[in-house]
Amino acid sequence: MKGTILGIIYCALWYGSILSGFLMIACPLLPLLILSPIKFRKCGDFLFSCWELYPAALLHTFGIKIAVSGDHIHPNESAVLIMNHRTRVDWNFLWAAMYQACLPSIGQHKLKFVLKDPIKHIPGPGWTMQINGFLYITRNWDEDKGRISRALNYLIALSRRTQILIFPEGTDLTVNSKQRSDKYALEHKMPQYSYTLHPKTTGFSYLVQLFQQANFLDAVYDLTIAYPDSVPQTEIDLITGKFPKEVHFHIERIPSVNIPTQDVTLRNWLENRWLCKENTLEQFYKKKAFSDQAWPMTKLVPLHAALFFWSLLTGLTLIFLIVSPLFRLWALFNALLFVGISLLTNGFHEIEMNWYWKWRTLFCHYKNN
Known about the structure:
This protein is α/β, with parallel strands linked by helices. The protein has 14 helices and 7 strands.
């Protein structure tokens, strides 16, 4: 019972912080997009990176240890991050790992996920990630190829050196997904894995080549996540308080000069990385650690500040929703706006990108005259 109460409190605070940030910060920021897409993207990235401290603060407060080892992530690099997808809630712990991996920089890294398209419809989180430029894909390669190239061209035009994280496995490790992976391995005469799924290489290869062709790739970071005790497979596990005591991450930085440039070699490179990852995880579950050199959690002041600010903002949002008809109208308007955007378009980020190119043409014309 105690675990369930703690799980409900944790998830309520987590979800409440996103909803309050959406209504109180992100939506009021939208008019800036019309005036200057460049400033809008800078402000949006900064504000979202500030929110990323909150999940790290919650995990620290609830006594969940995040152990990170390997290479630090340079927050101002343009990079592709690849990670195994052990459970549906891996991303919940990733924010805390990124906080430790990117120290001492606070609020500087610009991490964006590649996600399944239906996630954009989730009220609050889906809308917020649309505003913050996350990439939503459909599993239709012709469509997804265009989305990826448009997003990267936009970031290059803004000179926004960004980290894009993809889960090459495409889904989390479950009984059903493992069966499909084993079937694929059997058909292609490849080894069957116990701790990972065979990666899908098409999207990774295309994304990396786009970075390389634009001379925009500084590195690829290979992240490996593992749970030494209990494994929360879904959001329901978090709500019912089935938290792991520890979550471990190991990070390896591969400089761009060591990354292949051809499609076939990139695909083979990723498959070899996954074979190494499988072996690394096998050793992890024998020792219950990646390394004896896990970094200690430092700089707790930013986490305490984030815990106070976002918890306060969540409380204020709840009060305003209860006592203010005008705020309820504001919330309803923005909710309906993003329901419409999610259903009728490819997402807010596509609107942002389309407006940027028109804005730049208008701005250049005005400047020349």
